Each structure stands twice: as C-alpha cells, then as structure tokens.
Amino acid sequence: MKALETYFAIRPEEVLVIGDNFNDMDMIEYAGTGIAMGNAPQQVKEVSGFVTKSNNQEGMKLVLETFVLS
Questions:
Q1: Which stretch of DSSP H or E encloses residue 16?
Q2: What is the pLDDT of residue 1?
Q3: Degrees, nearest 5: CA angle 26-28-44
Q4: From CA 52, how far away is CA 6, in angstroms rounded?
Q5: Which of 7, 22, 28, 35 is the most exposed place for a label (fewest CB within 10 A)?
C-alpha cells in the first residue's frame, strides 16, 4: 500500500480498502477508510470503520455506490 501511495501521491487518509478476513486487518486499520465485508469474522468487523453487506449480497457494489460514486 505504501508503494501505491507514493506512486499515486496520496496519503493514508485517502486510501479505501475492503477486506473479509484476518489477513486484511492490518490494511483495514491503516487505511483512512477501512471496510469489512458482512461475511468477515467479528474481529475484522471490529477494527473496521464500516461494515458492508456480504459477498453474496453485493457488498462490494454497496461500497462503490456509497464511497466512490456518490
């Protein structure tokens, strides 16, 4: 993520990440907007600023509509 921040000249506060499992927790906590999928374990949801619907309920679509397209 830090390499991408440098490449695109953005700050961590400007980064939005979406994760659904324990391996995503570090990036969720690091990013300015950390989002957990609805099917993520509870611990992942707890470190996230926002929890979307599950993969099967178009959670990614909701995130894009809410945070990117609005």
A1: strand 16-19
A2: 83
A3: 85
A4: 28
A5: 7
